[in-house]
Amino acid sequence: MYKKEITTREDVYLLVSTFYDKIKKDSFIGPIFIGTIPTEEWDDHLEKLTDFWETNLFFVKKFKGNPMQAHKKVDQQFDYGISQKHFGRWLELWFGTIDDLFVGKKANEAKERARNIASLLFFRIYENKPK
Bridge partners of 102? Predict the structure, then answer.
């Protein structure tokens, strides 16, 4: 398969939509996403996530939202059961999707930013867990 650089919103959408197709099929983390995002809201959610990653990779101001609050709420919904292993699997699928589709500087940036985001989200969720 031909791999290219991430250069456009369309590329970001391809990355995000392919990644979440994998997420939904994953037996470990898929149930969290499927249990959180109603079927009829997936298209809107993919657009929002494309905005998020387009903002992160190209510094355009499109994303509006509070990922930290959203992830804390999801952890609470799942009885505070989201663990570092879930974030590890998320990263594994993200990296694999990037490697399947893209090469270059932005692909590497997408990996590094995802690693940083996953670490920050995990630590904030961990702090939010009941003692």
Answer: 4
The DSSP symbol for 4 reads: B
- This prediction's pTM: 0.93
3-state class of 48 per DSSP?
A: helix
HEC secondary structure over 28-42: CCHHHHHHHCCHHHH
Which residue, chain included where needed, has tokens 């939010």?
128
Contact 5, 105 (CB under 8 A): yes
Structure tokens at 48: 């929002």
Cα–Cα distance list, 3 to 16, 32, 49, 56 (Å): 16, 30, 22, 21
In contact, 57 and 110? CB cutoff 8 Å:
yes
* Cα of 131 vs its chain's centroid, Å: 27
- The answer on pLDDT for 101 being more than 80 is yes
Q: Name the 3-class secondary structure at 120.
A: helix
Q: Please compute the mean of the pLDDT values over residues 62-76 and round it to a whole number.
A: 87
Helix axes 105-128, 67-77, angle to 10 degrees: 50
Predicted local distance difference test score (pLDDT) of residue 83: 93
Given phi > 0 = left and psi -120 to 50 = alpha, else beta, which region is 80? left
